[in-house]
Amino acid sequence: MSEEVKGRISVETENIFPIIKKWLYSEKDIFLRELVSNACDAIAKLKKISLSEEFEGGTDYRIDLNFDQNERILTIQDNGIGMSEEEVHKYINQIAFSGAEEFVKKYQGEGDKPEIIGHFGLGFYSCFMVSSKVRIETKSYRKGSQPVVWESESGTEFTIKPGETTERGTKISLFLDGDSGEYLDPWKLKELVRKYCDFLPVPIYVKEEKANKQTPLWSEQPSSVKKEQYDDFYKYLFPFAEDPLFHVHLNVDYPFKLQGILYFPRLKHELDANRMGIKLYCNHVFVSDEAKELVPQFLTVLQGTLDIPDLPLNVSRSYLQNDPLVKKISSHIVKKVSDKLQEEFKRDPDEFRKNWDEISLFVKYGLMTDEKFYESAKDLIFFRSSNGDLTKLEDYVERNKEKNLGKIYYAGEAELSSVYMDLLKSQGLEAVLVDSRIDSHFLQFLEGKNADWKFQRVDSELADQVLDKEASPDLADSENKTIEDRLKEIFSKAVGREGVEIKTEALKAEDVPSVILLPEHLRRIAEMGQFYGQKSSELLKTHTLLINRKSKLVKNILSLSKGLHPEKAEKLARSVYDLALLGAKLLSEEELSAMVRRQRDLLEQLSSD
Ligand code: ADP
Ligand code: MG
Fold first, then answer.
1. How does the average pLDDT of the chain come out, rounded?
2. Any known ligand binding at 289?
3. Which of 196-205, 239-248, 309-318 has the lowest mean pLDDT?
4. Average pLDDT over residues 388-398
5. Which residues are recorded as binding ATP (predicted)?
6. What percent of the chain has pLDDT over 70?
C-alpha cells in the first residue's frame, strides 16, 4: 500500500451504532474503559508472543493518555502488539469476528489464566460516542512491518494509508466532539482510570503521571496473601470504613471462573439495604458498583470485589437473575460465606462470640431469607443468656430440656432485672435475651423451622416451677366464696376498667404480691406493630393481673376488706396493681403521674392513722 484507500466498514459493524447511540447519554465514560482495555489486551498479547517469537522494540510496557486542549485531541497509546494493514481491515473494518477471540484460540493454552479481556463491552467503536473523528496509528510487532493510519469521521466510512511512526504499538487519537470537552482534563482522566482500570496489569499514565494501582489482590493465591495485605486492600477500597471483621477469598476455576475478596464489615446498626459494597469486575476491569443480581440480598452488606470474566455484560440486568451461571455463582458465594463463619467459630470461639453482636443481624437476616444459607449456618444461632454468657440456641435447649418443658424463655434487655426474671432465676431457670428489632421476626421464623423451638416471653406466663403446687387449695368459705372470688371482687373494682383478667395463684415467692402477664400472641402483634411504626400501648392494655394468694400483703388486703376498712383495702389493691404495671413497664406518662398522686394519698393516710 502506497496511497490512501477509502472504504466502508462491514454491515455487521454498522449494526453496532444504534446500540452505541443508546448508551451515549447514560454511560459515555465507558469509551475510555474500552480503549484502555484494548490497549491492555494488545500488551498482554505481546507478552504472550514474547515467549516464543522475537519482536521489535523494548519490553517497558505502558499505556499513555495525553491530550491537547487547543486541538481537542485525546490520545490513548500503547506499545503492545500493534496491527498490520491486513489486521486493521480484519479487526477494525470487519468487526464481525473479534480479534481477541481469534488470538485466544491461537495462543491460549489449556489452564492459562484469562489474560485477554476482549469482547468486553461495546468495543472499539464506542469511541464514536465522544468523537467527531478518530485516527488509529499503528505498527505491528513483526520485524520490518509497515505502519498504517486509519481514519474515520462517521464510523461507517474510513480511509487507510501508510503511516510514518517508527514505534511499535497503537496510538488512537480522538478528535473530541463539542459535547465531550470534559475529557480534556487530567483529573477527569485519572478518575476514570482509577474507576475502571485501576487493577489492570499494565501501568497507565495520564500526562506522564501513573494513575492506576495495578495489583488486584483477589487474583493472588489465597495461601500467599498475608492478613495485613487483606486489611490494606480493604482500606484502599473503602477508605472511610472501620476494619472489617473477617474476609472470604474466592478463587474458582471450574466449573466457572470467579475470583474476589468479600469482607464482613462491622454492622453496628440496622441492615442498610442500599449500601453498595461489592464492586464487580470482569478480568480486572471495573464493571459496576452493585452486585445485586449476583448475590442474595442479605449478602449485599458485604464489601469487596468480585471478578467474573464470563459474565454476560451487555444483557439486561433482569435477565442476569435467571442466568444459570449467575445462579451457580450466587450459591457458591453463599456456601463460602457460611463456611467462613463456621471456620471462624472453630478457629476462635471467643473472638467469634465477641463479634457476634456485629454479625448477628447479618446472619439472622441470611438465615431467614436464604434457604441454602440456613442449611449450612443453622447451628450458628447464638443468643445472650440471662446468666451472662453467649450460648448456642441448641446448647440452651439441651441444657434446659428437663426444666423448661420444651420452652425457650426469652426476655428483652429491659426485663433482665424484672420481677419475671427474678422469679425464673430463683428457680434456677434461664432465659435468652433478644435485643434487635429483627428478633421478633427471627423467633417466629425459628419456630416455623423446628417444632422443638417454642419461644415464650418471660412475662407471658409463669413457669410451673415458680408456682407453689403444695399450697393449700383455695376452698369456698361459709358464704360459698373462694379466695379467688373475693380477690376478683376487690381487684376488679380497684383496676376499674375492662380488658384486665384477674387470676390468683400461689407463688413460691411470698414477697411478690402480683404480676402482669401479657399473652404471647398480643406481645408479638405489638412488637410487629412497633416494627412497622404503630403504637402498641392500646394492645397491651389487654392483660392478666395475676395475684399471689400466698403474699402477706394480699392476705392483709383480704382481711381489711372483710373488716372495718373496705375502702382502705381497695386503695391498697390499686397500689398493688400499679406496682405490677410498673414492673411490667406498661405505664404511660399520664398513668405514671396518676399513680404518683395515688401513692401520695396513700402515704398521707398511712402517716395520719
Ligand atoms: P474486542 O476487544 O472484543 O476484540 P474491540 O472492538 O474492542 O473488540 O476490538 C476489536 C479488535 O481490534 C481487537 O480484538 C484487536 O484485534 C483490535 N484492536 C483494538 N485495539 C487495539 C490495540 N490498541 N492494539 C492492537 N489491536 C487492537
Ligand atoms: Mg475490546
1. 87
2. no
3. 309-318
4. 89
5. 34, 38, 78, 83, 98-99, 170, 317
6. 87
362 found inside a domain:
no
Residue 9 reports pLDDT greater than 50: yes
Mean pLDDT within 427-447: 88
Q: Ligand 1 site: residues with CB under 6 angstroms?
A: 34, 38-39, 42, 78, 80-83, 91-92, 95, 98-100, 118-120, 123-124, 170
Check whether residue 204 and residue 224 sit in a common domain: no
Same domain, yes or no: 294 and 431: no
Nearest CA to ligand 1 atom 5: 123
pLDDT digits (tens, 9 = 90+) for 81-124: 999 999 999 889 876 445 566 666 666 665 555 555 555 556 88
Q: Does residue 174 sit in the same domain as residue 223?
A: no
Helix, strand, coil fractions of the chain, as percent rounded to 5? 45, 20, 35
Q: Is residue 478 part of a domain?
A: no
Residue 555 sits in a domain whose CATH number is 1.20.120.790
Q: Do 159 and 294 fall into the same domain? A: no
SS (H, E, C) 313-346: CCCCHHHHHCCHHHHHHHHHHHHHHHHHHHHHHH
User: Does 38 count as an annotated binding residue?
Assistant: yes
Domains held by the chain: number = 4
Q: Which of 124, 139, 173 to mutate to test the pocket of ligand 1 (most atoms within 8 A of CB)?
A: 124
559 CB neighbour count, 10 Å cutoff: 10
Quick one: pLDDT at residue 272? Answer: 53
Domain carrying residue 604: 483-608
Q: How many alpha carbons fall within 13 Å on the CB side of residue 258? A: 22
Residue 267: which CATH number?
3.30.230.80
In a domain, 358, yes or no: no
Q: What are phi and psi of 543, to 5 degrees?
A: -155, 175
DSSP assignments along 260-288, one per residue: EEEEE----SS--TT---EEEEETTEEEE
Please say whether the beta carbons of 216 and 307 come within 8 A: yes
Last residue of a domain, one of 466, 498, 529: 466
Ligand nearest to the CA of 138: 1
34 is in an annotated binding site: yes
With respect to residue 472, please indicate whether it lies within any of the assigned structural domains: no
Show which of 209, 233, 259 is a domain's final residue: 209
Cα(41) to centroid(ligand 2), Å: 8
At residue 370, what are phi and psi to the nearest 5 degrees? -130, 110
Whether residue 98 is annotated as binding a ligand: the answer is: yes
Nearest residue to 9 (alpha-carbon basis) of 130, 153, 146 = 153
Q: Are residues 414 and 550 in the same domain?
A: no
**Grid cell digits, residue 315:** 444483557
Distance 40 CA to ligand 1 centre (A): 10
What number is the average pLDDT over the span 523-528?
Answer: 77
**Alpha-carbon span 102 to 90, nearest angstrom:** 11
Residue 452 cell numbers, joined: 422443638
Sequential DSSP letters for 215-241: --GGGS-GGG--HHHHHHHHHHH-TTS
Determine the Cα–Cα distance for residues 520 and 500; give it in Å rounded to an integer: 15
Is the pLDDT at 589 greater than 50? The verdict is yes
Answer for the pair 75, 173: CB distance below 8 angstroms, yes or no: yes
**Does the pLDDT at position 535 exceed 70?**
no
